[in-house]
Amino acid sequence: MSGNDTREHIKLSARRLFAQRGIDGVTVREIVAASEQKNAGSLHYYFRTKDALVRELIVDTAQLIDDRRNAALDQIEAEGGPRHLRQVLEVLVFPSINLGEANGEEDTYLRFISLLALQNRGLLNEVLEGGLNTGYQRCLVHIRQLVTVVPAAVLEQRLVFMSISLRAILAAREASLERTETTHAFWSAEGTLGNLLTALEGLLCAASPP
Prior knowledge:
Elements: H1 3-21, H2 28-34, H3 42-47, H4 50-78, H5 85-93, H6 109-119, H7 121-128, H8 134-146, H9 152-178, H10 192-205
């Protein structure tokens, strides 16, 4: 196995463990063992520290998602849109699913990020603020322009609810699909993701109580 292959194998093994137990629940020794490295210092050789490894894992797929979102928004805006909230929600959801298809890896990123947001949100935000969430921020700008049926302060609260719930929902989807060899009765059903988009529309646009 080449040095680059070893490096990627350590990353994949670490991300799988972090997705299961969070970064605080996984030791360097466990990562080395899971990646089947004979040299106990292999993680430090390739990444220096566990924190540096975590940061690289965040960047890897955050960049992929951000590139997908920006490309989708560029096309929509070039056509004079978005004209409907659902278009923006599609840009939020679809670029962040089935991430393993891009590089032949298993999908564990969303669970890794979901647990990291609970355990160390400061670290996650610090890394993402380095220009890795521009597509997400562009989506928020469009949502604020398109959703005018609720007061601005209410919408800002709902955007937080949307972010938290969407991350949890997609992480649950990722976990469920990993446990099935073919299809999943709920997540593979026709219309499920469309219904998720409808639910998000309802969350953002529902009338405020008097």
